Amino acid sequence: MSKWIDVCHIDDLQPDSGVCALVEGRQIAIFYLPRLNAVYAIGNFDPFSEANVLSRGMVGDLGGQLMLASPMYKQHFNLQTGICFEDAAISVPAYPARIDNDRVAIRMSE
Q: How far is CA 40 from CA 86, 93, 100, in A?
């Protein structure tokens, strides 16, 4: 079962950048892309550097897919699936996220 968790107001996010939020004990990297009027959420833990740093990465596009470049060793993760572009066997958790009445919510599994 899953539930939507209210995390913050949209104004708490930096456009085209990431922030880290502690949601139900998990570090979640949240990215706001205003030109798409969308938010994306993935786990903040970088499996390559073994550090909680993904919220500090750069967002962009790789082959037409939204991605995040890790600030450490520059691996690229798909913002929608969490799968690493360079090694599909490696991924980070990806969470459904939405904007509703200027509030950001993330769907978490129980």
A: 20, 11, 14
| Angle formed at CA 63 by CA 27 and CA 52, multiple of 5 degrees | 15
Its pTM stands at 0.94
Q: Give Cα 2 distance to the centre of its chain.
A: 18
CA neighbor of 28 nearest in space, from 102, 94, 72 = 94
- In the structure encoding, which two tokens stand for residue 14, read together? 């930096």
pLDDT digits (tens, 9 = 90+) for 41-54: 999 999 999 999 99
Beta strands in 35-89 (DSSP E): 38-43, 45-46, 51-52, 58-62, 65-69, 76-78
Domains and CATH numbers, the chain: 3-101 (2.102.10.10)
**3-state SS, residue 41:** strand
